[in-house]
Amino acid sequence: MAILKFRIYWEDDDSVYRDLVIKHTQSFLELQEIILKSFEFDNKHQATFYRSNDNWKRGKEITFEKYDKVYKVEPLLMAETTIGSEIRDPNQKFIYVYDFHKNWTFMVELINVNKDENQKLTYPSCLRSEGIGPSQYGTKGLINEKLAEIEEKYDINTSILADGYTEEGDEDTEETEANEDVEEENTPGEV
Asked: How far apart are CA 99 and CA 114, in angstroms?
């Protein structure tokens, strides 16, 4: 029995990846479940795999179910398709798309084939986790004493700031400076 080792990269940051092992006789549905678990995503949305070439071009589709869209070629179903049946070369690649509204995309690359099964592992399994994965529903913070990435990206345009505020969020200083000038005039000073 062949044990396949895949590296799953998050499309937006290839330093964020998971190394997974799975038996060649297991299904794409099982591969999907371990991908979602390893990136801490839920299993509530539509998803599909595409067999790919070295240039990450989408080929044959392996989908969770047949969706309401027009297919050029009938897709395979994840639950009915074994991973080994779709391996065409020793560096086989797949593209995994999860949640068609958010369009989470992961690059799945076969990095090793081994004939020796590790009796201590339950397949499929995550062997290595590098980088903090994306947050499925928003930003991550400090959760269960585990530091997670907080992604807050703002493009502050000064023309849309509220009246009376500067980029730093402080009130406009013209009025404050005018008040300070009045205070200086009223303060007895040295002659």
From this structure: 32
Full pLDDT tens readout for the chain, 191 residues: 899 999 999 999 989 999 999 999 999 999 999 999 999 999 999 999 999 999 999 999 999 998 777 778 889 999 999 999 999 999 999 999 999 999 999 999 999 999 988 999 999 999 999 999 888 887 654 454 454 444 444 444 555 555 555 555 444 445 545 555 545 555 555 44
Neighbours of 25 (CB within 10 A): 13
Domains of the chain by residue range: 3-130
Q: Using CB atoms within 10 Å of the CB of residue 23, give its burial: 0 to 12 exposed, 13 to 18 middle, 19+ buried.
A: middle
Q: 67 and 101 in contact (C-beta within 8 Å)?
A: no
Sheet holding 58-63, edge to edge: 76-77, 58-63, 47-52, 93-98, 104-114, 3-10, 13-23, 125-130
- 3-state SS, residue 115: coil
Partners of 126 in the β-ladder: 20
Q: Tell me the one-letter amino acid at 67.
A: Y
Which fold is adopted by the domain 3-130? 3.10.290
> pTM to 2 decimals?
0.70
